[in-house]
Amino acid sequence: MTDFSCVITGGGDTEGAGGADALRASVASVLGQSLQGCEALVVLASGAGAATRTAARALADSTPGRVRLVHADPAARTTGALRNAGLDAATGRYVLVLTPGERLHRHACRNLWQAGERSRADLVAGRWSRTVDEGGKEQEPPWQDELFARSRTVARFAEAPGLVVRDALVTGFCLRREAARRHGLRYEEDLAHGEILFGPLAAAAVGRIALVRRLIVTGRAVPDRARDLTGLVEAHRRVANTLDAHGLPALREERERAFARDHLVPLARSFPRIPAARRTRTAATAARVLTAPVPRELPPLERVAVTLLARGDAEGVLTAAYALSRPATVCAPLVTGLDGRVRWGGEGPAAVDVTELGHQYRVFGEVRLMNRLTRCTAEEGRLLLAGRLVLPPHTGPGPDTPLTATLEFRARGGARAVAFPVTELRHDGNGITWGARADVTRLLRPLGVRDTAWDARLIVEAEGDHGRVRSVSDLFGPQDLVEGAVRFAARPRLGRLTGETWEPYITLKDHLALRLTARRRPARTAHRLVRYATHFRPARKAKRLVRALRKRLDRYRSRGFKAPVYNTWLTRLPVRRGSVVFESHMGRCYGDSPRALHEEIRRQGLKLRPTWSYDTSPAGFPDDARLVRRWSWRYLWALARAEYWVDNQGFPQHLRKPARTTYLQTWHGSAYKRMGFDERRVQLRNAPQRDRLQQAVHRFDHFLVRSEHDVVTLAHAYRLPDDRLLRTGYPRNDALIAERTRAETEGRLPRPPLAGALGIDDHKKVVLYAPTFRGGPTGGKQARRRLLLDVREFAERFGDTYTLLVRAHYLEAARLPVCPPGTVIDVSRHHDVSEILALADVLVTDYSSIMFDFALLDRPVVLYAPDLDAYAAERGSYFDLRESAPGPVTATQEELFAELAELKKSDTRHAAQRASFAEKFGTYDRGDAARQVVAAVFSRRGARRGVRHTTDHDRGAGR
Fold it and tell me: How many Å apart are CA 443 and CA 456, to the nearest integer?
């Protein structure tokens, strides 16, 4: 008995072109397994093609001990029947089924076998990937990340609902052969996609199930949903009935949502790329088989697409497909009801609420409009185009508003554009119908090289309240709209050998474009000669030399080259007296304590030469300072010659501090979560990694603290001796102390100038939502993350009384939905957070150190921490947040909203707690931190003291 019997069918009802090659690829992956006890069991249908039969016999003859050929009964015509024949013929301890073309990862059987033997599970499942394009690119379904995040064993399938909610068990799993026979597990022979049903049936029948996080199968084909819709829906329906039979209605509801998102929405997205006749047939089939209600939990555009698909509206599904690929575009007429809700499809019961898309908040000229191409033909040697521009009901020119329009073709990747007049333009109520005749042969004159593709767009101008308003839109259409369309002669400036024909086509992004092609013999010959000249041996050698040169130049610009040069040579340069290099949050902003110190130095008139580093753009940085880009040669030169380094995060760890440089670390906040060597992930690093962190921290000559809490947490976590601590408070908080004093003596109004710049009404209170950083290392790039707070719900409930400012962590970027104007404002790009804190009336945060600063203003703080226990267990914390928080700690959004609704009462209840919090964690913040730090570090006496204080360990750090 072998360890694995891998069943592969040949000649079933799902066999397509290339069946023989697919069979060879699957068998080869079985023979290449690192686990030797694997056999390939090829089940051949009686009606298999000649090529498939020949390939199967050749495989069996070439490896008789590893490949076994089974001839199925002539009555077995479907793939399900062939697979059942393979299950009957299998002799291995475990059995695994592959569709022809699917390939096992080299160690797949070994990983499955080890997991099965260790856990004694009857079913073992792992990851699989599918081929998503013609180039063979592989992609795993994104939902597998959560299901197979770690290897584990479950007692029953309900403990891992993703196994049956998603099509996780269509491939990439194995069964104990004895368990399969004991439970009578068989494929449904009348079902086109029986693998969708077989996996959940097996999971429900067996007991213990093992999940492995390794990739098992690659090369699974994406189903042709337009062709196989009936079979896919029937298989899904039987899985849903199985869940009902096991008393799991909640899982059935999840399954309905997952099926819509995994199959119906992709089917709708494919409509622009399939012919019109097939779109009509597919929509009719969908109307017949999709009888279940559309899940209401789907996002609005997905709900629109599935609703129209179930209704059999082929044109509506096509429009929804355009909307799915560009959610910010108004693609269909919308109706605003008496309740203020915006609906797609009118006011009837079939209408879909799309209010949350926020189209109603954008005006003509700002909102993107769908320009649907309805005609693309030739007339008298000219390109005749016609289309319709959708207008939303709340904005746009009225029927009597004068309109002008221009059809423009723009060279892709260039600045050249050619405009044609629009001869027909008519307002028809909820849209603008237009038509144009373009003499592309005479007026569109490309160079002929690097400008062979030209994208079309329509520019509509109308009179608005503040002058003329422009709306620019691409021309969208299905792929078959221009198939077989006439072509036009082209006259390139470099001659017709570069191309002589204009050909309209629909791009992969579904919009109209023209391309210059070579269809006649002279141009084709010229193209072949150019290709030969650029691809024969000397040309290939020249290209390799150019690539090698570019690679060498890239190496000289890389950090791996720059750091050794800096450490070896630049640090030997003499110090430039009075030079200071400032950096805030790794060059991402001009703010925090480095900014406060820079402005204090400028106010005192000290003769220092400031240099600021920036990460991507110098916009917003001071004009009176020298600006250098982080990791540039000028940046390294400035660091090597600086007398002072000042930052709040840490200059690059790979760079040594010169012996005569004083490093002032202002830090970026007090600690709730564990930091430095107190972090578990740091403790789990190897010794060299921990040594590098210690060497980087050892560069600090001065470290600012704002309370004894910082001493026992941050100073201890980074192993800083007491003589390097400056107990002055944070210079950035001087502005908050001054703002609190002003508010107590003069009142809160007028607000700081930033309120006017952001357009905040004086009658609204300002809520600042500033969550902490939740990710891991980002490689210097901002990660876009979804906020835990539903800001759209906040805007609906509190938009009349509050303005919500969202401040994402500087290492992350928030994804905000469109909300009513003045209700939600993203201030993540604002340089100085202290200005935002001074503007806010309420702070909502979770574990961010911003709460320690905001408490100095003596204004309400509400903590929204739905994952407090999990976060504290994973990251670790220095104190119990529920006991020491400066305000209420809420675990759900409803609790948060309840606190905001009763803010005055909540403020009164927590006033004493907030004052105690500010005193404990901000003991040294007294409003003069910047002056104290400048006196201690940058004044003549302070500078001498700093040099004497740091000489010994500077010498060690500079080696």
Answer: 14
